[in-house]
Design a protein that fits this description.
It contains 13 helices and 9 strands. Helix 9 links the parallel strand 7 and strand 8. The strands form 2 sheets. Strands 3-2-1-7-8-9 form a 6-stranded parallel beta sheet, with helices on both faces. A 3-stranded antiparallel beta sheet has the order 5-4-6. It binds zinc ion.
Length: 349
C-alpha cells in the first residue's frame, strides 16, 4: 500500500469502532474491594456453594460432579423432574445479582464507559447490571457513550416478545409499546444455539456487525470458557470477514488479572491474534490499556502511533492511567476532549 493510498483510507479508519468484550473478570476488577457494602461477586465455578444456594438442591440428586453453574443448569434443564429446582435457582440468582451495588467512587466500569464513544461497542457476557449502574452516573458527564450488548442475557436488559427489540428492562418496546420481558439468564450449555434464541438474536447481530468493522478489539476478563465455544466461534467468524486475508490495521489487547499466564492467554486467543497479523498485547490492568492511554481517542491513538507517523512514541496529555479518584477529577480531565467533540474535532490532545 502506498503512502497516498493510506492517506486516502485514514479518515475512514479513524471512524471505525473500538469493540470491548467483557467477561466476569471485568466485573471482578470493578468490585476489586467488593460492592458498596463489601459484597464480592462470584464466578461460575463454585457459584452455588459460594452464595450458599445449596439448600435449593436438597430435593434432587445431581448426576454431574461439576461445580460449574452452567453444567449444573444443563442437567436440570434436561431432566423433567427438576423444573421446580430450576426455577428456584433462577429466582435466587436474580435476587443475588440485584443486591449488588456499585461503590460510590469511580470504578473500572466508569473509566471504561468514559474511554469509549457512541461509535464503539461493549459486548458483555455478564449477568450483573454494574455497567448500567455506572452508565447512569457517567451520563452526567457525557451522553456520548458506547453501545452495549449482553450476549448471555442480563438482569438489566429486557426484550420484546413481539418484536426483535431489546433495551433497558425499565423501558418499553419502541415498536409496540409493550413492557419488556426480563431476559433469560441461564441457557443449557449443549443447546445454547444463539442464532435461534429469539431474545438474543438482535444483540448477536449487532455484536457481529461491530466486530466486522472493528479498528481495535479489547478482550477484558473474558476467559471464553469451554462451555462457550460456540460464542467464541461466532465472534471469530465475524472478525475473519476478509477470508484468509489478514487485518493489517487492527490490534487485539487482552486485559487479564495481575499474575496472568501470558502463554495461556495467547493460546486462547491465537486465532484472533493471527487474523490481526500478530498485532497484540497482553496486559494485566485496564490502566495499561490503550483505552486508559487515549480515552475517547483509542483508534486515533493507535493509528497515529503505529501507522500515521511511522513510529510516533508520544502520549496523550489526557489519560486515565493514573486512575483519577473522583468523578469531578475525571470530568475536569476529559472536558477538553468533550468540548472538541462538540465541534467534530477528534484530535488527540
Ligand atoms: Zn415490541
Amino acid at each position: 500500500m502506498t503512502e497516498s493510498d493510506f492517506k486516502r483510507l485514514l479518515p475512514n479508519l479513524k471512524k471505525r469502532p473500538h469493540v470491548v468484550i467483557i467477561g466476569a473478570g471485568a466485573s471482578c476488577a470493578t468490585l476489586i474491594n467488593g460492592d458498596k457494602y463489601g459484597k464480592k461477586i462470584s464466578a461460575m465455578d463454585n457459584f452455588i456453594k459460594k452464595l450458599g444456594m445449596e439448600d435449593i438442591f436438597s430435593s434432587v440428586k445431581l448426576e454431574t460432579t461439576s461445580k460449574n453453574l452452567e453444567d449444573i443448569y444443563s442437567e436440570l434443564d434436561e431432566r423433567n423432574d427438576c423444573d421446580d429446582v430450576k426455577n428456584k435457582l433462577e429466582v435466587r440468582i436474580r435476587e443475588y445479582l440485584k443486591s449488588i451495588v456499585i461503590p460510590d467512587e469511580p470504578t473500572i466500569y466508569d473509566y471504561l464507559l468514559l474511554s469509549l464513544r457512541e461509535k464503539d461497542l461493549i459486548i458483555s457476557f455478564n449477568w450483573d447490571d454494574l455497567l448500567f449502574q455506572a452508565r447512569e452516573r457517567v451520563s452526567e458527564i457525557t451522553k456520548d457513550l458506547p453501545q452495549m450488548v449482553f450476549l448471555h442475557g442480563n438482569i438489566g436488559v429486557g426484550y420484546c416478545k413481539n418484536d426483535i427489540e431489546y433495551g433497558l428492562i425499565t423501558n418499553k418496546c419502541t415498536k409496540c409499546g409493550e413492557k419488556y420481558t426480563p431476559s433469560q439468564l441461564l441457557f443449557p450449555v449443549k443447546v445454547k444455539n444463539y442464532n435461534s434464541t429469539f431474545q438474543l438474536q438482535n444483540q448477536w447481530k449487532v455484536a457481529k456487525d461491530y466486530i466486522n468493522r472493528a479498528g481495535f478489539i479489547t478482550i477484558f476478563g473474558y476467559g471464553a470458557p469451554n462451555t462457550d465455544v460456540e460464542a467464541k466461534d461466532i465472534l471469530l467468524k465475524a472478525f475473519k470477514c476478509f477470508g484468509n486475508d489478514k487485518r493489517f490495521f487492527e490490534e487485539i489487547q487482552i486485559i487479564d488479572k495481575p499474575g496472568l499466564n501470558e502463554s495461556e492467554m495467547y493460546d486462547k486467543w491465537s486465532n484472533f491474534i493471527h487474523i490481526s497479523d500478530n498485532h497484540y498485547k497482553i496486559i494485566s490492568s485496564f490502566f495499561n490499556s490503550i483505552l486508559a492511554e487515549f480515552p475517547r481517542r483509542s483508534i486515533e491513538g493507535h493509528l497515529k502511533r503505529n501507522y500515521e507517523d511511522g513510529g510516533w512514541w508520544g502520549n496523550s496529555k489526557i489519560s486515565l492511567t493514573n486512575s483519577p479518584k473522583t468523578f469531578n477529577e475525571i470530568k475536569e480531565l476529559i472536558q477538553p476532549l468533550l468540548d472538541n467533540e462538540n465541534n467534530n474535532n477528534f484530535e488527540i490532545i
